[in-house]
Amino acid sequence: MAPHVLILSGTVAAAASAVYPKTILSSGQVDVTVYLPGKLGYYNSTRFDWGSMIGEITLGEAEFFSDLWRTATDPNWGKDHDPSNPEGVLGLASEFGCGSDGPDCPAGWGRQAEASNGVLGYHEAGMGDPFLKIGVGKLIKGSCDACKTDTNYHFNSRYDFAEPPVWTVSHPSSDTIDMIHEASLGVWGYRFQRHLQVHGDMLVMRSELTNTGSKAFKTVQYTHNFLAFNRQQIGPPLKLQSGQDLSSYSEPGNEQ
Ligand SMILES: *[C@@H]1O[C@H](CO)[C@@H](O)[C@H](O)[C@H]1NC(C)=O
């Protein structure tokens, strides 16, 4: 899986988030708040990988926050935060899957549904049986609210866990953190490692997914970029410019 290199994508913690376990990565130039994955974490729901909740990022006088992107369309966003809300996220909010319903999805625009929508063992599971959601853990098929009327996989509906997911966090130095999560079910298994490191004015994020099962799988993954700047949403008078030339970039499957 290709590493993501992010230059200062910023986020914010809602007012109540101070109670959730977190740590701060510091390079001396940039400080990044990372919410730690776990049962009592900022996010413990069933859509996004738990190791992708980044809080505020500060660089000198500048603050990059994430809750503001949403308040324009949802003024109540961030109040009464519920960690078990599938959509109750911060920062990079990374999901294995393509953000739509169904157990399979296309790996790129205009393609056939040839990859997994971040789930393993979904097709063969009966209602009430476990399946894996990568980055989340072992869930129960048919347990979500939206599942009451059909057997489809619903990516943003809350599922019951078949067992609590285990995350191992190591924070060997003030600039680095590793968050590791593994799960297995019969022929299916994965090990996921999220590595975050700050150096200079950069936050580098590496996501590594290993197949620990005996059956091959293909999945897609994406990450949000909930950016705001000094408590303002991006929009006039602010202008966002990419440091890279993206004029010839095409999404996979959408090449010209
Ligand atoms: C999620 O967090 C809430 C509030 O801290 C807690 O009551 C609940 O048991 C947690 N759920 C899981 C699946 O860990």
TrEMBL record:
Signal peptide start-end: 1-18
The keyword Signal belongs to this UniProt entry's keyword annotation: yes
Protein name (Swiss-Prot/TrEMBL): Uncharacterized protein
Keywords carried by this UniProt record: Signal
Species per Swiss-Prot/TrEMBL record: Cladocopium goreaui
The organism's place on the tree of life at top rank: Eukaryota
